[in-house]
Amino acid sequence: MTTLTIKTSKQKQTVRALISNALEQELNLLEMSLGKTREKIQLFESQYKMPTKRFLSKIKKGFDDSNMDFIEWIGEAKTLEMLNEEYQTLKEIRLS
Predict the structure, then answer these.
(1) Three-point CA angle 39, 29, 18, nearest 5°
(2) What is the CA radius of gyration of the chain?
(3) pLDDT of residue 60
(4) What is the per-residue pLDDT across 53-93, written as a single tens digit (0 to 9) for each?
(5) Could you give the CA distance from residue 3 to residue 90 in angstroms, rounded to a whole number?
(6) In this structure, what are the phi and psi dihedrals at residue 66, rounded to the nearest 5 degrees?
(7) Which ranges constitute the DSSP H helices of the chain?
(8) Pick from 26, 27, 14: which is nearest to 6 by CA?
(9) Full-model pTM
(10) Are 95 and 6 in contact (CB under 8 A)?
């Protein structure tokens, strides 16, 4: 867990509310991005009839860089991982 301590010459509650709202907005944006990324990945999984985990495992053995779908699928998988990490990091923040 990450704890942010607020030190300010302004009213602490006002600053705390601003930071809390900003964090909440960012979490909402991340949730929307996660949803869109999951939808894109699901389309690839349906089209190629395999889960992303198996696809990535196959890609490690040999990559067909002429298939733009594969390039996009890899990018979406990496994006999903990055968005999840950001979301979890922000979700753990506590203000004091």
Answers:
(1) 165
(2) 19
(3) 87
(4) 999 999 888 877 688 999 999 999 999 999 999 999 999 99
(5) 11
(6) -90, -10
(7) 12-48, 52-61, 68-91
(8) 14
(9) 0.86
(10) yes
